[in-house]
Each structure stands twice: as structure tokens, then as C-alpha cells.
Fold these 3 entries.
Entry 1:
Amino acid sequence: MRHDWDSDEVLLDALRDALSTPPGDIPPGEVPPEFVEAAKAAFTWRNIDEELLAITSYDSVLDDTLFARARSTATARQLIFDAEGVSLQVEVSAAGITGQLMPAAGSVTLVTPSGDHETSPVDELGMFVMGAAPHGPVKFRFVNGCTDWFIL
């Protein structure tokens, strides 16, 4: 929306109108979509501490003793995420992803930057199975938290 604010009187009239309109009287559809998206994005940060609940405590890619063997043979990648009262152990191979969430509850979702990639239910032992993992940044989301982003 373009305004003709070349004169001080027109600008002051526009400011007076803006200030005299109570916030609740803005008709629906007047909020630009980019403002709505920005508000939604800001709202997702309300529980960032819970989301970063589980941090990587072990990654086989970073294990020096396994690194020498991994150069000569294709091996599965082992990841362990630990936090207070929660443990997620994951094995990523060419065949897919297998893992265990302790304590066993709900489901585990593999998330990519473009959204949820795959969700798998957790059985009574906390075990879950997923298909082939996408390449690039991912994280696992589960009841009461999620891992930090890491690269597959």
C-alpha cells in the first residue's frame, strides 16, 4: 500500500488515524502474511530448552578407533543422545535407521529442515525402525524433547 506522504499534513493525518485505531479493531486479513509467519516462527522458540533436551554424547564418526576401520569397510553409524532421564540410541546404515528410546514412550520422528521426514512408533522396549535416512541436517523429535541438529 503506497501513501502520498509528501506533505506534513498528510503524514500527520495518517499517523493520527493509525494511533486512534485500537489494536482489536484491525479487520481480519489486514495483517500481512509475512508478519503472521514471523509471529509463528517466534512462537516456536518458547520451548527451546526442552527441544535441546538431548545432546549428542557419542557419535561413532568421531571415535578415533573406529575411524581407521571405517575407511576400509562401510559400517553403520552409531549415535547416542543423553539427557536427564532420557536416552536415545540410534544406528544409521544403508538399510535404514534402527534405535531405542528409553524410557519407551510414543513415537520418534526424523525431522529435516523441510519438515517431518518419517515417524515411527516406539514398542514396549523402546525400539523403533525407519527407512533410509536422508542426507544432510536432521534431528530426532520424541516425547518431551528432541536432539540437536546433526549431519547424516
Note: Residues 8-47 form one domain.
Entry 2:
Amino acid sequence: MAKIRLPLEMENRKMFLDEEKIDFNKKKLEKFLENEPQMKNASFAKKVLLSNEVQSNNSVEGYYDDIKKIKEVVLSSKKSKNRKEIDKLRIINLYKGYKYILDEKDINKHTLKKLYSILSDGLIEKYDLKNMGEFYRLKPVYIHNSNNLSKMPAEGIDASKIDYYMNELFSFINNNFNSKCLTDEYIKSQIIHFYFVYIHPYFDINGRCARTIAMWHLLNNKAFPYVIFNRGIEFNKQEYYKVIMDVSKFANISFFVDYMMKTVLIELQKEHVIQNVASDNKDLTGTDYQTLHYLLSMNGLLTLCDFANTYNRFNDKKTIQEIYNEMIEPLLDKGIIIEQRQTNKKINNDDHNFIFKFNNKFIDDDAIKVEELKVFKNGL
């Protein structure tokens, strides 16, 4: 296998892809998808895109809204013209952006401008608006990839070069690149994802736009299983930003592609279990799906307190009692999870924390389908 030079320039050098580095995870993904026909249709992608991915795309950037809140905001937006609240705008704009890419097939300068106008509507500062050209920013942008404000920010490419770099990107998107299978389209989508972040053509909304344009490419090429890639980033954002910086330094896109392949494989395995559960429980709610996703993202022993800690990392905080009532108790009642034993720790004056596990009937015998999920490492 060889290093493939990509037609995408980075500061006077071309990016390259090391096929040998990514081959192992590419084969694992292809093997996993062999017997997952339910994930290979447009209805799967649409369902995932308009529910979970709205949350995940925002969560990558530190905006935490649970599924219930997102659905309430989307529904209320159809009845009200009051769209001034910033937290609602992020959700509404992303939802509308996903609806747009489901309908629009062409990816070019003009359709991207439309997507950006949808995602950024009402969210851009006056300075940024003043210094935007017809398509892209006209001034420098400074990128903080860390919460440490004493650390010097990265800088997007020179504004005068953006049009050239973006034209290279559109040419790459709209021409065939080494595409022999669905996973090749996923690899291409993540090259697009990275390169857009590298260019940083806007003052803000670059990350959300990059991830959305990657999904757009996946939809256009019917690589439907892979639209769930955002979900995994939220659980490992530090590594996400690290590999972006590594590629920026060395022009080796393999770092980023390999990270994103590992990430999406875990999400596909979670989805496999969730679909097993859904096939036996037709009345699953959006909150049930979110609960299952968090449970499958945990590491080893499951307790109510551990789940509450996980949930509160990625959402506005709730009490353990609220989390039990709204998220854990419904899954216990449906037999999806089973209480095993109490622990010595109390969650209130009367009730103890407790350990629970997944009902084994939802976990098939094919270990490859769940081998990346840490929650099952201690046995089923």
C-alpha cells in the first residue's frame, strides 16, 4: 500500500493519506456493515440526522441540550416567531440545515453559502458580519482549540487565499476519489471535514459547517450508516482537537481519518444494540434512545450514580432522582435493563444507589458486533 497525495494544498504542500495506517479499521468497518442492511437506507439516515445528530453536532462545541429539549424547541419554533434566544437558534438552525442537505444535492460555492446562512442565522457578531465578503471572511480569524486562554490560538489561512482553497475543496468533493465502497466515501467525507476546518472560511460556525458538509457528502453518496459520526466526537473531544492539530502540522490526514473510523465504529456498534432493543420495544421514546446511547458509552459497571454523572457531563444538570424517574425507570419497566443489587451509597434518605445491566436477550452472540463497547468488557 502507498501514500496517496491528495489534491488539497496545505501551506505549499499537499496533504497525503497513508493507506496502510487506515487499512485495519477500514476492514473492520466493512466487516461490521456486511450484515446491517437496516442501516444502509435513507430512512435510517434521516431519523438519526434529525434527532441525535442535532444534539451531537452542538455538543462537540460545548452546547449541551438533551433530546427532549431539542424536540420541544423544534416543535415550538413552528408555532412562534420568537427566535431571539441563542440556545434555541442553534438548535433550530442546525435542524433546518439538516433539512436543507437532505433536499439539496449540489455542493458548490452557492449552495454552501445557503447552508452557512441557515446555520449562522442570528448567531453572528456585528464585527464578523461587517467583515464578511460575498462568500467568505475578509479578515483573520483566531481559533482556540483549548480552554487555556493563555495558550496562543491558531490562525485560519490568510483571507486572500480562501477562495482558492475552497475551490480546491469543491473540486475534490465533486470528483471521484478512490471510491470503491461505502467506507471509502466515509474516508472522503472526513477529509472534507478536516480540510474545511483547516481553511476556516468564516469567523464562526466553522466546525458545525464542516461536520454538516461531511454529512452532506455522505447523503449524496448513499453512505447512510456513517452519518452518526458526530455522536462519538462528543465523548472524546480532546482527542478530536489533538488530531486536527497533528494533521495541520504534518499534512498526514491519516491521523484524523483513523481517529474518525475508530469513533464511528463504536457508534455503529451502539446503534446495532439500540436497534436490537427497538425491534422488541416499539414504544421507545426519544429519551429512551438517548438513555441507551449514554449507557452504551459507559465503561464497565453500570450504576445509577455513574449514569447520572455521564448524563450531567453532556447536558444541563438534573438531580439523580429526576434522572432515575425520566430515564432509568422506563428502561427497567420495559425490561431493557435489569437491576442486580444495591450498593452502600445512598442517593437520598430512603433509596440506595444500585447496579444494573443490559438484558442479555438484546445482545446477540456475534461478539464482533459489540467488541468495541467498554460497557460489555466485564462480561454480559
Note: The CA atoms of residues 281 and 334 lie 8 Å apart.
Entry 3:
Amino acid sequence: MKEEEGLVIGVSPQAGTATVKVGRHAECSACGACAGSRQLTVEAVNGPGAVVGQRVKFAMQEQQMLKGAFVVFLLPLILAGAGGILGWQLGYGGEAEDLYPLGLGFLGFCLGSGLVKWYDRRAAARQKEQPVITEIIS
């Protein structure tokens, strides 16, 4: 488990979660995929009962971060490449041999993007893999 620190900016008592504002760290410096210029937010299980304005420590599973990065960044590209190769094989020597790889590559990318959305919904529904607030600092 990886521990981070952040500032609670919102609390949802019904869901038992808190929105935590986290500063970017070394792993995020080259990515740029997160919204916000220097900050990002995380929805964490609020076990200790933190309130808005408190600094907290929260833990998250590193393997989930790696799996999420693979799904978001690589899966659409792999499926686009596979679609392009399949299209090249199917359209080789035909009149529209350039359209097959382009079309199937695009379909592969769309399929990969759909799988990213499906994975995101599924991951959001699983509470046990959510970050968990472990300690209230101040």
C-alpha cells in the first residue's frame, strides 16, 4: 500500500467518503492526464471521520494504479494496432487496401476506449479498492 497526504475538500456522509486534494508527486510529473494544473482529487473511504479543511494520510494499492495505467494508456493502442494489422491482412491486394487497416484500427481504438469506460465504472463500484483515509494529521 502506498501512503499519500492531502487536504479534505469535501465530505459525503451518506457514502462514507471524502474528496481529498492531493499535490502531484514524482510519478505524475510526466503524465499530464489528470485534470488541474498542479493538483488532483481522490475519492477516499472516510473511516476516521475527517472533515473539510483537515490534512489526512490515505493509503492506496499500487497494483491498482499500475493496472489502471495499463488499461487507460496501453489497451486502446494495442487494440488499434491489432485492428490495423487485421485490416492489412484482410485488405491486402484489394482495391481499397488502405481503408481496411485504417477502418479496423479505428474500430479497435473505439473498442479500447469503450473498455476503458467499462473498467472505470467497474472500478468505481468496488469500494474495497478505493483509497482509504488512515490518519488525520491536523
Note: Residues 64-125 form one domain.
